[in-house]
Design goal:
- By secondary structure, the protein is α+β, with helices and mostly antiparallel strands.
- 21% of the residues lie in helices and 41% in strands.
- Strands 1, 2, 3, 4, 5 and 6 form a 6-stranded antiparallel sheet that branches.
- The longest helix is centred in the C-terminal third of the chain and has 19 residues.
Length: 90
């Protein structure tokens, strides 16, 4: 499984980090995404709902039940790094 983390927005009030997971090691096939957002004023981090894209160019689907267990396990491993990235001033 491949993963990718990027700072997606770094505005005055919010900083967002997007974390993508590609279970088949190919970001052009299926990708699961979660976003962490830091409210700079209150110092609170929130998580978005999980989204899923079946293939490059396909519609984004919001998942009601969350991603498969292997994606959740990978996220649990990377979550501390994602939280550090969202809290770090650039």
């Amino acid at each position: 499984m491949k993963s990718n983390m990027i700072v997606e927005q770094d505005g005055e009030q919010y900083r967002d980090v997007r974390v993508d997971f590609a279970p088949n090691d190919d970001f052009k096939k299926e990708v699961y995404t979660i976003r962490l957002s830091l409210d700079k004023e209150f110092g609170m981090i929130s998580e978005s709902d999980w989204t899923y894209v079946a293939s490059e160019g396909a519609a984004i689907t919001e998942l009601s039940k969350g991603p498969p267990p292997d994606v959740l396990n990978a996220y649990d491993t990377l979550k501390p790094q994602a939280e550090t990235l969202v809290e770090t001033e650039r």
